[in-house]
Write a structure and sequence with these properties.
5 helices; about 140 residues; two-stranded antiparallel sheet; single chain; alpha+beta; two-stranded antiparallel ribbon
């Protein structure tokens, strides 16, 4: 908040007053944490949806869902939003993929990441090249 071009700051108080305000705030933080824990537990209990599609087009050709695991125990499937009509991928998804670093740790833990999208493979491969991505 600015007042006449100056940055507004909280008022300065004694340590005792600060501690009282901090303890009051801590009550709200704990309520929020408990609510977040409840919501996350609820999310983990959501029902699953059976994936009926069993053929995916990828850089290696057509692959089954089982093949996407690449002989690993776990598969993280990230839905990269790229509508077939769009010229570019979703900005948020693009930023996510830009930020993906070294995947050796998940691989060591028998986990594979697969990016899944509705756009045509040729369009996806072109976008991947444009962005300089090496991830599949």
């Amino acid at each position: 908040m600015t007042i006449r071009g100056k940055i507004g700051h909280p008022k300065i108080v004694s340590r005792k007053a600060w501690l009282a305000a901090r303890k009051k705030h801590l009550i709200n933080e704990k309520k929020l944490t408990k609510q977040k824990d409840r919501v996350n537990a609820e999310l983990r209990r959501l029902p699953m949806v059976k994936i009926d599609k069993d053929v995916f087009d990828g850089p290696e050709g057509k692959r089954s869902l089982r093949d996407l695991f690449d002989n690993r125990r776990q598969l993280i499937g990230y839905h990269f939003m790229f509508d077939p009509e769009w010229e570019k991928g979703c900005p948020g998804c693009t930023g996510y993929v830009d930020a993906i670093g070294n995947l050796s740790m998940p691989h060591e833990r028998e986990t594979r990441l697969a990016l899944i999208s509705r756009a045509a493979l040729a369009k996806l491969e072109s976008y991947k090249a444009l962005k300089g991505w090496t991830i599949s």
